[in-house]
């Protein structure tokens, strides 16, 4: 930097920092040093110091203090003159603090080992843990550094003293070297109060003592503190052991919503203390300040950061939230949609503004302050340092950012709304008591009989040994949740159905504090649970069996399934597949975890789709498409993992290598029935056939073993349930045939021996999973078979004969009709479409494209194969049937039963079309 430019930059610096002005006048040689380093980033300046040895041990303290002055001047000059951003500032000062600690520790360790007359060893190793902003590498310029000292184990260091005494002395010397104020000033103020038991605890803690403390004595707020812990020094094995202690203490393997109440209490104490000390406008601890940004960020980290692939199932992997950096955590929250991206960005901008302001407040006199100045002269200095002409525009911008922070903080922690909501509800509706609980009672919705039913259910519930054994805190949460559930369910249903389905869920989780806390903390989630329970017995049962899915209930729309673009589906399937494959790799060869991962993935995605379905954002046909894509993905993943599992184990290895080829070359899974035609429902099973290509070189015995293993992966019952029930009876020769067929054998069977009904089934078949190179050969076989010229008279006769046989096997019940198999029902439409494909694909190859029954009926009408009016009526009936069948599945019914008075016109339209096509062949 030339002299003129430098002089202008220094003038701006002096305007912003009386400390810099005093420092450079007291030590004139610093001015030239600063000019020569002004063009260099402060991070590079610190790195150069780190690479430069200190001349002699006797000068270490003086050298560190001089370097601190130089680093501060470099940071301030660059920051005030807009040459450095926040990242450069916090990285430079944090790296400098690391260097100071390491240099001081190395110096005093060597000196103390000499005094003890012992050699360096793992026992002499002292781990210094940086906490707070130092741990996160986001230190502010005039900050204390929070440290904790940990050593491996105690024992005799020499004949007179223990290693505990050695490390206690060492720790005191390191603190004094850094913290002591002498004629050269100080380097950093050192704060040791975050160590176990605080000021009353030992200065140095062993690993064993720390583990015991975490398990028996640590207070909830200490999880928050240790989230940012970073081991700055130490031997690798000791550091790994320490990290292994800290990780499970900070991050739970489940979503830890109970942390919200603990964090809220901690923040309440901080805010009360700030009020006592007159610090309401303090930009760190005051409302809308830095601490609230950190709380918002860290509560989401504590809740979700430990959630990863485990034996309980898969789920979204949020290990990226284990970062110590507030700024990186905010970015992760936005990327995962935990906070909508736009709001996460606004919060990040507010945090950057507040941190920059914090630095300028501290630059003024090198004081650890976050209080806004009171005097007009200092206000003007700060405004200019922040890039504003005067105080008022600056203050408006500051207040805007603080409002953003306050809004996010209240969204995450605010409970006032809940209390108001409850008081308003009770005021409007009145209440009655059950087992001492204040139950909202809306006489407009609930009659006396309903009240008696609720009373009886709750009394029996609370009389159970399960509830009697609950700890007081858990029971209190359950009671509060029951009160709220009664009122919430009344808003969606005037019968007991929704409430009792919700009660079933609460009974399933009444011993699991984190889920009770979640539903209490998020009233919107409880309301969504009520809506789900009201409209879908299937989804309510799923939540009851797998409460871990509750987190997906409360995710914002940006993360839940909903349209992204007109050409994309509701789910980011590429992203889902990538995540699933990544999680499979992380699991390695643990088959049990792989089973649960697939099942949890299915449950999680299906619940997202169900929510979109219930909220009217997803039609029945589109839902079936999505469920079919889900099945494709999961079966394909099962094929890959099963293939890896059956590979020969190398000598001296306990399991197949994780690097085994990811795909089973020459093996394919063909989907039939509803899977093949993309008409799956929530509880559909999978009709499938296994094919292989002998030219791939895969031995036959390995092919059979793979097919067996894939089938087992799909239908084995585990803690997560069954992935899919499978039906293999559509393979060549049915149950008597081989489990897996070669392409040539499959062709031969379809061309020469298959029955007409098997060709009907083939109309709905498609390649779904496995080796994609077999999709084309299979489709060639399918095309050749379906486009074969047929005797139309014989074809119609055989189709009618098969339909009559099915009716005899699957009869209606007195007063109830099976919508699928009754006359004029779903199967009649399917048979009509299958006839059209078999009879006319030779002239109209577009019929082979598996376009679906609705589209094919309309297409057949357009080319004159059936009358347009009849086709339109039958197509309309098909949509009505699918909707009704879907409603039945949503309520846990395997079949859709209707009364003879329901869907009369639709059944008549289908019967009319059937008779017009097959009247001469025994059609009824």
Average pLDDT across residues?
A: 85
Largest sheet: 5 strands, mixed
Rg (CA only): 35 Å
What's the total number of strands? 14
If you had to describe this structure to a student in words, what would you say it looks like?
This protein has 924 residues and is mainly α. The chain is 59% helix and 6% strand. It contains 39 helices and 14 strands. Strands 1, 2, 3, 4 and 5 form a 5-stranded mixed beta sheet that branches. α4 runs parallel beside α6, α21 crosses α23 and α35 runs antiparallel to α36. The longest helix is centred in the N-terminal third of the chain and has 31 residues. It is elongated. About 5% of the residues have low confidence.
Explain the layout of strands and helices:
Blueprint lengths: L2 H14 L1 H9 L2 H9 L4 H10 L8 H21 L5 H31 L9 E5 L1 H4 L9 E7 L11 H17 L10 E2 L12 E3 H10 L3 H7 L3 E2 L4 H15 L8 H18 L13 H15 L21 H11 L4 H23 L12 H10 L5 H23 L2 H14 L1 E4 L2 E4 L7 H16 L1 H4 L3 H19 L5 H14 L3 H9 L1 H13 L1 H9 L4 H5 L18 H15 L3 H24 L5 H26 L21 E6 H4 L9 E7 L7 H16 L10 E2 L12 E3 H10 L3 H7 L3 E5 L4 H12 L5 H18 L7 E2 L7 H15 L12 H10 L5 H23 L6 E2 L5 H15 L6
Parallel strand pairs: 2-3, 2-4, 9-10, 9-11
Antiparallel strand pairs: 1-2, 1-5, 6-7, 8-9, 8-12, 13-14
Helix pairs in contact: 1-2, 1-5, 4-5, 4-6, 5-6, 6-8, 9-11, 12-13, 13-14, 13-17, 14-15, 15-17, 16-17, 21-22, 21-23, 22-24, 22-25, 23-24, 24-25, 27-28, 27-29, 28-29, 29-31, 32-34, 35-36, 36-37, 37-38, 38-39
């Amino acid at each position: 930097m030339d002299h003129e430019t430098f002089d202008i930059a220094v003038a701006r610096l002096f305007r912003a920092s009386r400390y810099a002005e005093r420092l450079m006048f007291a030590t004139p040689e610093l001015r030239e040093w600063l000019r020569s380093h002004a063009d260099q980033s402060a991070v590079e300046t610190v790195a150069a110091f780190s690479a430069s040895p200190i001349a002699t041990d006797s000068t270490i303290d003086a050298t560190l203090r001089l370097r601190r002055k130089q680093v501060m001047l470099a940071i301030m000059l660059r920051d005030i003159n807009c040459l450095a951003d926040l990242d450069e500032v916090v990285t430079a000062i944090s790296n400098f603090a690391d260097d100071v600690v390491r240099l001081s520790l190395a110096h005093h360790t060597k000196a103390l080992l000499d005094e003890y007359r012992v050699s360096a060893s793992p026992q002499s190793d002292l781990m210094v843990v940086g906490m707070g902003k130092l741990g996160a590498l986001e230190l502010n310029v005039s900050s204390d550094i929070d440290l904790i000292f940990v050593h491996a184990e105690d024992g005799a260091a020499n004949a007179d003293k223990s290693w505990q005494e050695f490390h206690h002395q060492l720790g005191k010397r390191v603190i004094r070297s850094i913290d002591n104020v002498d004629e050269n000033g100080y380097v950093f103020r050192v704060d040791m109060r975050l160590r176990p038991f605080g000021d009353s605890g030992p200065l140095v803690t062993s690993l064993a003592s720390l583990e015991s403390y975490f398990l028996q004595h640590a207070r909830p707020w200490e999880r928050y503190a240790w989230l940012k812990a970073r081991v700055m020094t130490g031997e690798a094995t000791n550091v790994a052991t320490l990290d292994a202690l800290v990780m499970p203490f900070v991050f739970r393997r489940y979503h830890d919503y109970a942390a919200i109440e603990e964090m809220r209490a901690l923040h309440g104490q901080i805010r009360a203390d700030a009020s006592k000390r007159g610090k309401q406008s303090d930009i760190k601890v005051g409302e809308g300040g830095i601490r609230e940004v950190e709380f918002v960020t860290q509560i989401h980290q504590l809740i979700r950061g430990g959630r990863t692939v485990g034996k309980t199932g898969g789920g979204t992997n949020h290990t990226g939230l284990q970062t110590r950096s507030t700024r990186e955590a905010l970015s992760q929250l936005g990327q995962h949609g935990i906070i909508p991206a736009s709001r996460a960005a606004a919060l990040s901008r507010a945090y950057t503004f507040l941190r920059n302001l914090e630095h300028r407040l501290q630059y003024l006199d090198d004081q650890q302050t976050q209080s806004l100045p009171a005097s007009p002269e200092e206000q003007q200095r700060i405004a200019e340092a922040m890039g504003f002409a005067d105080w008022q525009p600056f203050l408006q911008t500051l207040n805007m950012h603080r409002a953003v922070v306050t809004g996010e903080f209240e969204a995450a922690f605010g409970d006032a709304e809940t209390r108001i909501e409850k008081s308003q509800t009770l005021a409007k509706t009145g209440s009655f008591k059950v087992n001492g609980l204040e139950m909202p009672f809306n006489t407009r919705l609930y009659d006396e009989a309903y009240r008696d039913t609720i009373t009886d259910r709750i009394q029996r519930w609370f009389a159970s040994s399960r509830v009697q054994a609950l700890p007081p805190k858990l029971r209190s949460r359950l009671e509060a949740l029951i009160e709220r559930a009664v009122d919430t369910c009344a808003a969606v249903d005037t019968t007991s159905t929704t409430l009792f389905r919700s009660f079933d869920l609460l009974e399933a989780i009444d011993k699991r504090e984190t889920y009770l806390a979640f539903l209490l903390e998020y009233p919107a989630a409880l309301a969504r649970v009520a809506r789900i329970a009201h409209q879908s017995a299937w989804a309510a049962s799923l939540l009851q069996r797998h409460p871990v899915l509750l987190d997906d209930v409360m995710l914002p729309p940006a993360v839940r399934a909903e349209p992204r673009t007109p050409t994309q589906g509701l789910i980011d399937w590429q992203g889902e597949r990538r995540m699933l494959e990544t999680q499979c790799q992380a699991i390695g060869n643990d088959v049990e975890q792989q089973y649960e991962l697939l099942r949890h993935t299915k449950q999680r995605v299906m619940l997202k789709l169900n929510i979109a379905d219930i909220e009217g954002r997803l039609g029945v046909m589109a839902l079936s498409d999505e469920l079919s894509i889900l099945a494709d993905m999961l079966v394909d993943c099962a094929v890959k993992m099963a293939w890896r599992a059956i590979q020969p184990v190398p000598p001296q290895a306990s399991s197949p290598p994780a690097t085994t080829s990811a795909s089973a070359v020459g093996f394919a899974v063909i989907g039939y029935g509803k899977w093949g035609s993309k008409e799956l429902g929530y509880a559909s099973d999978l009709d499938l056939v296994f094919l292989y290509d002998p030219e791939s070189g895969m031995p036959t015995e390995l092919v059979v073993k793979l097919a067996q293993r894939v089938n087992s992966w799909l239908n084995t019952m585990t803690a997560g349930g069954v992935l899919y029930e499978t039906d293999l009876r559509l393979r060549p020769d049915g149950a008597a045939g081989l489990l897996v067929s070669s392409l040539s054998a499959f062709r031969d069977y379809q061309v020469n021996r298959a029955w007409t009904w098997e060709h009907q089934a083939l109309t709905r078949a498609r390649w779904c999973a496995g080796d994609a190179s077999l999709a084309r050969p299979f489709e060639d076989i399918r095309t050749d078979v379906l486009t074969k010229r047929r005797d139309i008279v014989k074809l119609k006769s055989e189709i009618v004969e098969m339909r009559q046989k099915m009716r005899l096997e699957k009869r209606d019940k007195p007063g109830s009709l099976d919508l699928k198999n009754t006359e004029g029902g779903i199967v009649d439409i399917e048979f009509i479409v299958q006839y059209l494909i078999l009879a006319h694909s030779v002239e109209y190859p577009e019929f082979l494209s598996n376009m679906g029954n609705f589209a094919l009926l309309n297409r057949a009408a357009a080319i004159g194969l059936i009358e347009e009016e009849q086709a339109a009526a039958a197509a309309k009936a098909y949509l009505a049937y699918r909707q009704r069948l879907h409603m039945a599945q949503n309520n846990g019914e395997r079949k859709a039963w209707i009364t003879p008075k329901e869907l009369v016109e639709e059944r008549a339209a289908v019967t009319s079309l059937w008779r017009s096509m097959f009247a001469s062949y025994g059609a009824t």
